[in-house]
Amino acid sequence: MAAGSVTLGIDLGTTSVKVALVEAAPGDPSGFVVLASCARAARAEVAAQSAAAGPQGQEQDVRRIIQALNECLAALPRQQLRKVCGIGVSGQMHGVMFWKTGQGCEWTEGGAAPVFEPRAVSQLVTWQDGRCSSKFLASLPQPESHLSVATGFGCATIFWLLKNSPESLKSYDVAGTIHDYVVAMLCGLTRPLMSDQNAASWGYFNTRSQSWNLEILRAAGFPVHLLPDIAEPGSMAGRTSCAWFEIPKGTPVGVALGDLQASVYSCMAQRTDAVLNISTSVQLVASMPSGFQPAQTPDPTAPVAYFPYFHRTYLAVAASLNGGNVLATFVHMLVQWMADLGLEVEESTVYSRMIQAAAQQRDTCLTITPTVLGERHLPDQLASVTRISSSDLSLGHVTRALCRGIIQNLHSMLPFQQLREWGVERVIGSGSALSRNEVLKQEVQRAFPFPVSYGQDVDAAVGAALVMLQRNFNQQES
Ligand SMILES: Nc1ncnc2c1ncn2[C@@H]1O[C@H](COP(=O)(O)OP(=O)(O)O)[C@@H](O)[C@H]1O
Ligand SMILES: O=C(CO)[C@@H](O)[C@H](O)[C@H](O)[C@H](O)COP(=O)(O)O
């Protein structure tokens, strides 16, 4: 990679937005340096727009996500932003939002540089959404895809809206993930482009033919006009339509990537690495040999799924719905209980005290199955606590048991023996729920007898930036 090239990476995560400025550094062992990074909690959770979604509905306010993105960009050094020669965007997969062509945002000369503000957009229905019951999913047509359709997947959500809130679809004519939306707004695209990484996470997408199951969807009355066109991950979606926080107009913007694939891209130094990412969710990932093709018939009871990576290769992924969000739920519960008792405590205080207490409590008999959201392969297995004794009820015991439960649940989906069989020799940890939690790290080491090292902070943002650095390098070489 040509020395001095600088790219911007963005990760629009479920809990926080992360950005990173990365510069090619041929002299550095990794080939790059992170010049600057920033993370901002989005705090975007809002009530579902359709009451019929019920308490399982999980939606986010797009304006708050873009506000967090703008705060991150504003915190980066301007003189570095002026040098940016590519923008890579990644984000929380599976989710879906809608907007009106040409009205998705308005560019305003806010402050020192133009920014875009969302306009005719819906809320984002996220991957955590549980509105599609098992009964509803069973009523949908069988996909022609190696991946089953689960609640929170874009196509399942659109089918649900078609049946329960058809009016809400009539106000929009395009759909995409939050990161497809940001790419489309930056480049002024009339129709969003979507990589197979994100298309596969919506369901009803055939990764072999690289196409939507259009016949199946049309026959079921699905609004196929909403589906984005498909483009290669790592290819250019367009160029910035105007200057953006000192980033020059005309800067190439890559087709949006899945946050999982972007994290793996920044962490996985060799094929024998496994990546364990704990962010809002948690994923354990190993790369499949080139030429590997997953079985064409989906198995909804399989705990491991195969997600498209780059150049038609696949990642084997144990994707649990229960990761950092379980700890966040516990913290929120404690803060709520203390408020009910007339005490006000900051969430950050609870996190630090509970992790400190658990670090002192090296073991516990308390056993927690943490699956408050169920799992895609076991939707009815909710959370439970067993082996409760009066001596194991301290904050340290409960936090240790919670962290152990998250890791043991993941291990039950993809045991270390299977990793060994696949030739894995090392585990790379990523995600800020892991990087900020020594107890989780201890439980990872306890469950997975491999050397464990830790990737970049803001790893998906770094990965998205690196994909654009590599693209620039390939262009200069050709
Ligand atoms: N102060 C904190 N200390 C430790 N962990 C935290 C703290 N604040 C949040 N977390 C954890 O980080 C998780 C969010 O990680 P993040 O990487 O921001 O998620 P995402 O990439 O999905 O947006 C939360 O679910 C929570 O478990
Ligand atoms: O659920 C899967 C895969 O099915 C995950 O890999 C998926 O990437 C993540 O759950 C979503 O993208 C959300 O990621 P994050 O916000 O938890 O980082």
TrEMBL record:
The protein's annotated catalytic reaction(s) are: sedoheptulose + ATP = D-sedoheptulose 7-phosphate + ADP + H(+)
EC code: 2.7.1.14
* Keyword Oxidoreductase among record annotations: no
Kindly give the Pfam families that the UniProt entry links to this protein.
FGGY_N (PF00370)
Q: Which GO terms describe its molecular function?
A: ATP binding; sedoheptulokinase activity
- Single Gene Ontology BP annotation: glycerol metabolic process
**Is Transferase tagged as a keyword?**
yes
Q: Which domain of life is it from?
A: Eukaryota
The protein's matches in InterPro entries, at most eight in alphabetical order, are given as: ATPase_NBD, FGGY_N
GO CC term, one of those recorded: cytosol
| UniProt keywords, alphabetically | ATP-binding, Cytoplasm, Kinase, Nucleotide-binding, Transferase
Carbohydrate kinase FGGY N-terminal domain mapped to chain residues: 7-264
- Any idea where this protein resides? Cytoplasm
Q: Which family does it belong to?
A: Belongs to the FGGY kinase family.
Describe its function.
Acts as a modulator of macrophage activation through control of glucose metabolism.
Q: What is this protein called?
A: Sedoheptulokinase
The opening ranks of the lineage are: Eukaryota, Metazoa, Chordata, Craniata, Vertebrata
